[in-house]
Amino acid sequence: MRRRLEALIERLAEVETVEALTELIHALRDNLDVEHVVYHSVNSTGQQYGILTYSDAWVERYLEQDYARIDPVVQGCFRRFHPVDWKSLDWSGKPQRTLLGEAIEAGVGRQGLSVPIRGPNGQFALFSVSDNRSDAEWARHTAARVRELILVAHYVNQKALELERGTDMVPVRSLSPREIDALTLLAMGYSRAQAAESLAISEHTLRVYIESARFKLGASNTTHAVARALTQGLLVV
């Protein structure tokens, strides 16, 4: 499973069109073993950009009703920085319950988890997965895959920004995928030993990636490197 995901991430780096990215999103849905995958971005000028596996009918309905205005996922995740399970959000209002009922009927799924992403120049995005598992099954599934979801969210956002070339695109220092992985895990609170184990590399190799990233970012230490990478939109935490 992990090798297949790594292969998809390598394919993602080679994507050059929105069509190819859409195909890859569908492949990610199968790899992550969920009903749907959604990437939705809003830049600092309000321009929206999305790639998803929902039905066209549901997308049209969502836009027609301007559901983003009341959607607890959109509104709740905007104020958060870590992955958010949809059931932890407030669906108690009548408009929200109506939205939820229509979404379930449209096949979105009864469960969902979203990774909030903050990119350069005020860009905000969500990478979401949804499914129809039971509460217990969903909790086990997302707990086992949350690290992968965070990393995939970063790579998809990075590629989408490259393709869209919107008004919020700014030049940033280039870090290698492994340098990004290393700093992302440290930003999430992993120790060096835990990060090395998660990436299946030695602590010495991890240190090489960290030092390389620190040099590229002009940072005085590891903490400084993580902070700079976060402010430049290079990491998702």
From TrEMBL:
Q: What keywords are assigned to this protein?
A: DNA-binding, Transcription, Transcription regulation
Could you tell me which residue ranges the HTH luxR-type domain spans? 168-233
Question: What GO MF annotations does this protein's record show?
Answer: DNA binding
Q: Which SMART domains match?
A: HTH_LUXR
Q: From its record, what is one biological process in GO terms? A: regulation of DNA-templated transcription
CDD domains according to UniProt? LuxR_C_like
PANTHER family reported for this sequence: DNA-BINDING TRANSCRIPTIONAL ACTIVATOR DEVR_DOSR (PTHR44688), HTH LUXR-TYPE DOMAIN-CONTAINING PROTEIN (PTHR44688:SF25)
Identify this protein by name.
Regulatory protein, luxR family
Q: Which organism is it from?
A: Meinhardsimonia xiamenensis
Source taxonomy lineage? Bacteria, Pseudomonadati, Pseudomonadota, Alphaproteobacteria, Rhodobacterales
